[in-house]
Amino acid sequence: MKVSDLSPEELNKRLAGLGLVLHIGPFVVLIQSSIDSIFRGISRLYASYPVATDDVFVDFRLAFSPSVGVRRFFRPQVHFSFDGLQPFVPLPLNHAFPMFEWALNWCIAKHAHQYLIIHAAVIERDGFAVILPGEPGAGKSTLCSVLVNRGWRLLTDELAMISVADGSLAPIPRPVSLKNESIDIVRRYAPDAVFGDVFLDTKKGTVAHMRASEDSVRRVNEHAQPAWVIMPRYTRGSDSFLQPGSKAQFSLLIANNSFNYNILDEQGFTMLTDLVQRCDCYDFCYSDLESAVQVFDSLRPPVTNAE
Amino acid sequence: MPNNSADKLLRVLREPALLATLSLADWDLVVRQARRSDLLARLWVLMKREVTDLVSTAAPHQHLLSAYQVSQKQARVVRYEVQRIDRALREINQPVILLKGAAYVVAQLPPAEGRVFSDIDILVPKAKIDAVEQVMNKHGWETTHLDEYDQRYYRTWMHELPPMSHIRRKSNIDVHHAILPETARLKPSSEKLLAAIQLIPGCDNVYTLSDVDMVLHSATHLFSDGELEHGLRDLVDLDSLLRHFSSKQEFWERLVERATELGLVRPLYYAFTYCRSMLLTPVPEMAYKAVLSLSDFSPVTRRAMGFLLDRALLPDHESCRDGFTSIARWLLYIRSHYLRMPLYLLIPHLIRKAIKNRKSSAPLNGQELEKS
Question: Which residues share a beta bridge with B96?
């Protein structure tokens, strides 16, 4: 059963009551909230996600509650709680849905050390994946959004999860968060893409979320093999071209962009170096999205070394 | 016990083999209670030790393993920091005397397994405190809480320097010159503790307290401290220490004797009582009776403290609360201050603290996930 199979009343009843339990990527997530923007965000952007049956173990319980008492009338806020603790500063009530997205990222990055987790987008084609590490302002999310509307499958736009067990990338398709001008740019390049509400004046500016395709949600259990690490560098007026990067530098880059590299200790180091060894590593300069798409289309998987 | 589900984590701690038989609903409670009590990593250790045919890909197990990985990392950090502290204190010929968690890790004692660590606590003689502060400053640690009142609070009234933080590595150290504040009602002699320190095998300048002193310190800290949200974890430490040392020659006799000598019989009484009732620690009947009669309680006090501690020591999770839990914790919080300071100092202090808390800094700004 999917979220879209629930009537709006039933969906709201679960969310506002004991919680709605969803399968998101490899995790089982319970979301509890009576706040409207969360209801709208879930019903629109998580429509095709499976609802969990009763006899399942919940990995993360997230609750979002509005301010109570007098605060309700005067700049009300939303409070995130995880197992009774409030790890975040409260945000304005109308930013509840973006807060949910950020909160879920936090839960995963802090607690899922069966993966090496890197701040990067991951897209896949024919079983091979590109990891796009996320320096702010480099255009990772914009590029990712356009590519997943041109034949690439979305694994994630934020949390690249590399399985400690076998080095594969675990999908966690979620709404792609876009900021400011990117929202309009992506709407132009992908007129069929579905967007949620637009949130103004967040700490990151204007934020909106693009729904992940049904295909990417359906294929949530299909892991991918990392083949390329491509560092996007949006440069106004530039041609689109890939520049091979130094593997040593890319190792450092990935370590610096990782959430839990230091917890995984020696194993993390080995995983990192293995990753960089077997992937083709590039810096990618671009300004025009159409020619960027063509460059990605021309990627061929690296030849694997026999040893 | 307030209610039935509060039992879950406790039963598993007492009998780790139960971990192999938990239903998913049980796991759900156990994981959440353990996470709030900082005992999730400990459960992993217990599970590996006691459950021989382990299937470790089950979802609940992942949470235990992740918590264990975090605790391993913290232990590595502690060992590294202790080396750096040693380097500093050697310059003034001062031994590094580790307390609590750091002591368990470096001395490889059983409580260290699956333990969560944050700050490092060391003990130094009062006469050397200024020299220690200076050499620590030289090596990059500076005191936090720079407000004048706070400085005075720590230095004059409490038993430690204000917490020190390393400017680059952000590691935290608490430098104590006694295990309880100057102003407290109980006054265990620091000189006696320092006279009994033990060198850690394999080290040449790093020490722990003696076995009985370690137990007494842990008990005193737990039962004088106001913040019992992590009380269960401290009790697990105590249980682990007692079981480990119980095979040593005349350990229980020495423990009771030392408690009497240092004036710490009452915390030891609480330690025995709650270790036995909550974790089934095998405290010999003789030792228990001795402490009971020496602790000189009125039945009223005993009953009242029992009521409070029965609730406050449970995991700080909604499944483990009843109507009285918050009050119990609050009363114990007040009591801990009452034990630390006389009333004429306590009241202004609490007022000031209440005002400050309103302005205190908030937790994470969630939009910026910290990277490693």
Answer: B206
Task: Kindly state the tokens that stand for B189.
Answer: 């002699």
> Mean pLDDT, chain A, as a whole number?
91
Q: Rounded to an integer, what distance in angstroms lies between the CA atom of residue B275 and that of residue B219?
A: 10
Average pLDDT, chain B: 85
Q: Residue B180 and residue B340: Cα distance in Å, rounded? A: 8
Going by C-alpha positions, the residue among A127, A119, A120, A115 that lies closest to residue A227 is: A127
Residue-by-residue DSSP string for chain A: -BGGGS-HHHHHHHHHTT-EEEEETTEEEEEEE--HHHHHHHHHHTTTSBBP-SSS--SEEEEEEE--GGGGGSS-EEEEEETTB--B--EEGGGHHHHHHHHHHHHHHHH-TTEEEEEEEEEEETTEEEEEE--TTS-HHHHHHHHHTTTPEEEESSEEEEETTTSPEEP---PEEEETHHHHHHHHH-TT--EEEEEEEETTEEEEEEPPPHHHHHTTT--BEEEEEEEEEE-TTPPPEEEE--HHHHHHHHHHTBSSHHHHHHHHHHHHHHHHHHSEEEEEEES-HHHHHHHHHT--PPPPP--
Chain A partners of B372 at a C-beta cutoff of 8 Å? 255, 258-263
Q: How far is CA B60 from CA A165, B19, B55, in A?
A: 17, 11, 11
Give contacts of A111 with chain B, Cβ < 8 Å. 63, 66-67
User: What is the distance in angstroms between the CA of the first residue and the CA of the last residue of chain A?
Assistant: 45
Structure tokens at B268: 């030891």
Please name the member of A56, A111, A255 whose beta carbon is closest to the beta carbon of B63. Answer: A111
Residue B282 CB-density burial (10 A; 0-12 exposed, 13-18 middle, 19+ buried): exposed
Q: How confident is the model at residue B55 (pLDDT cuts 50, 70, 90)?
A: low
Q: Is residue A128 within 8 Å of residue A182, measured between CB atoms?
A: no
Instruction: Please answer whether residues B367 and A87 qualify as being in contact, where contact means their C-beta atoms are separated by less than 8 angstroms.
Output: no
**How far apart, in whole angstroms, are the C-alpha atoms of residue A21 and residue A7?**
15
Question: Between chains, do A83 and B32 touch, taking CB under 8 Å as contact?
Answer: yes
What does the DSSP assignment read for B209-264? --HHHHHHHHHHHHHH-S-GGGHHHHHHHHHHHHHHHTTSTTHHHHHHHHHHHHT-
pTM: 0.88
Among A28, A115, A263, the strongest candidate for a mutation testing the B interface, having the largest count of B CBs within 10 A, is A263
Q: Which residues of A touch B70 (CB under 8 A)?
A: 113, 263
The token duo for B65 is 């393993």
Partner-chain contact B28 A258, CB within 8 Å: no
- Residue B366 has its nearest CB partner, among A55, A102, A262, at A102
Q: Each residue of A225-268: pLDDT tens digit? A: 999 999 998 888 888 999 999 999 999 999 999 999 989 989 99
What is the rounded distance in angstroms from the CA atom of residue A284 to the CA atom of residue B23? 50
Nearest Cα residue to B222 out of B89, B126, B312, B342: B312
Give chain B positions within 8 Å (CB) of A116: none
CB contact under 8 A, B59 and A59: yes
How are beta strands A77-82 and A91-92 bridged, if at all?
A: antiparallel
pLDDT at B53: 67
Angle at A235 between CA A231 and CA A236, to 5 degrees: 155
Cα separation, B113 vs B16, whole angstroms: 15
